[in-house]
Write a structure and sequence with these properties.
This is EAL domain-containing protein. Residues 23-274 form the EAL domain. Helix content is 46%, strand content 19%. The chain is an alpha/beta fold and 276 residues long. α4 runs parallel beside α5. The protein is globular and about 60 Å long. The chain binds ligand C2E and calcium ion (3 copies). One calcium ion (CA) binds next to loops.
Length: 276
């Protein structure tokens, strides 16, 4: 539209105009929702590989727009990052997650996603500590997920912040592992405890597929380094059987066991397992 616009009056480009107005409205609505805490949090359980127990749940932010309905988190998280208001979402989610976790069985932890922007700002330590204090949750029950690419971004700052959080008893997980450019050799120098292997490694896996060989290699090396392994996006019984036949995972997260659910449902799911 740029070249077309050049010859005409750029102020009246109806299509572009409408899209721009809509985007501005969405941003204003998001700001409003964050300020007034009109977001929700769902939780997706991570199971022991045999499915006998829920060990941890990942907190996933939800925004139900009054007119547009559910907006996917990867959409509104990115907008929030562009607007510079992501720390408001992180604060909301970590607070809610810590509080909800105190209502779950004691052996269960909760895992909260941090954005790349959270890791550039040492305020994140105060935000997380405030949520722990307010809820009274044992820091050993809080996990924080950081993506591989966000760690590589500003290695020195990020490493210091993660080391600080970890020294308080919080567990650090690397999210979406295998999608970025970091080599496994970095893992050893980072203050992390858990590796979450991205679901792209699970899609279309077969015993002899190259993807599965990559997955097994990553798992073996991570274990050598003393890290625990979560495999994400496990959808089918066949995928689960293959992963378990090779003892690839310490925890499994995916539709094969459960979709993200409300906090009340976490308790129901875990009670049902205990009664088995
Ligand atoms: P993620 O951290 O990789 O979260 C896992 C996503 O995979 C979730 O999507 C979950 O519903 C989906 N998923 C789980 N199991 C399966 C499966 O078996 N198959 C498939 N195809 N998908 C599965 P969701 O909730 O839409 O979240 C998308 C992304 O939005 C998250 O990816 C994360 O990057 C971001 N996000 C969500 N909540 C937050 C938050 O509170 N803070 C930040 N910074 N990012 C968040
Ligand atoms: Ca995550
Ligand atoms: Ca823990
Ligand atoms: Ca992930």
């Amino acid at each position: 539209t740029k070249s077309r616009a050049r010859g005409y009056c750029t102020a009246f480009e109806p299509e572009m105009d409408a899209r721009y107005v809509e985007q501005q409205k969405l941003k204003a609505d998001l700001r409003d929702a964050v300020e007034n805490k009109r977001l929700h949090v769902d939780y997706q359980p991570m199971y022991k590989p045999d499915g006998s127990r829920i060990e941890c749940c990942e907190a996933l932010a939800r925004w139900i727009h009054p007119e547009k309905g559910t907006i996917p988190p990867n959409v509104f998280i990115q907008i929030a990052e562009e607007m510079g208001i992501i720390s408001g979402i992180t604060e909301f989610v970590v607070e809610r997650a810590c509080r909800d976790c105190t209502t779950w069985p004691n052996h269960m932890s909760v895992s909260v996603n941090l954005s790349v922007q959270d890791l550039r700002n040492a305020d994140i330590v105060a935000i997380v500590c405030a949520a722990l204090e307010k809820s009274g949750l044992d820091p050993a029950r809080l996990h924080l997920e950081v993506t591989e690419s966000s760690i590589m971004d500003e290695l020195v700052t990020v490493r210091a912040i993660l080391a600080d959080l970890r020294s308080r008893g919080i567990t650090i997980a690397i999210d979406d592992f295998g999608t970025g450019f970091s080599s496994l050799s970095y893992l050893d120098s980072l203050p992390v405890d858990i590796v979450k292997i991205d679901r792209s490694f699970v899609r279309n896996i077969g015993e002899d597929s190259r993807r599965f060989k990559l997955l097994r290699g990553t798992v073996n090396l991570s274990r050598e380094l003393g890290l625990k392994i979560v495999i994400e996006g496990v959808e089918t019984k066949d995928q689960l059987a293959l992963i378990n036949a090779h003892r690839c995972a310490d925890y499994i997260q995916g539709y094969v066991f459960s979709m993200p659910v409300a906090t009340e449902a976490v308790i129901v799911l875990s009670d049902a397992l205990r009664r088995k």
